[in-house]
Amino acid sequence: MPKEAELKREFQKAGCYKESEGGNHEWWFSPITGERFQMGRHNQQEVPVGTERVRRKQAGVPKKR
């Protein structure tokens, strides 16, 4: 499972960016899909498989093989 920081780096390379910060989450925007989505603020925490799948779909960034 990837860590939160690894996903953020990958999404940034794809053009996604952080729009704002909330209490426990950050709001990100994907120019690929035009959607806003949440990312956790705990960068060293591992992201569960299902959560990673949903975030990748929202961001429009496929998983590397």
In a nutshell, what does this entry contain?
The chain is of the alpha+beta class. It contains two helices and three strands; from the N terminus they run αβββα.
Give an overview of the whole structure.
The protein has 65 residues and is an alpha+beta fold. The protein has two helices and three strands. Strands 1-2-3 form a three-stranded antiparallel β-sheet, with helices on one face. The two termini are 14 Å apart. The model has no long low-confidence stretch (mean pLDDT 94).
Strand order of the largest sheet: 1-2-3
Written as H for each helix and E for each strand, in order along the chain, the element string is HEEEH
Largest beta-sheet details: 3 strands, antiparallel
Structural class: alpha+beta
Question: β content, as a range?
Answer: 25-35%
| Shape assignment | globular
The domain tally reads 1
The residue fraction in helices comes out at 25-40%
Radius of gyration: 11 Å
pLDDT < 50 runs, ≥5 residues: none
Mean pLDDT: 94
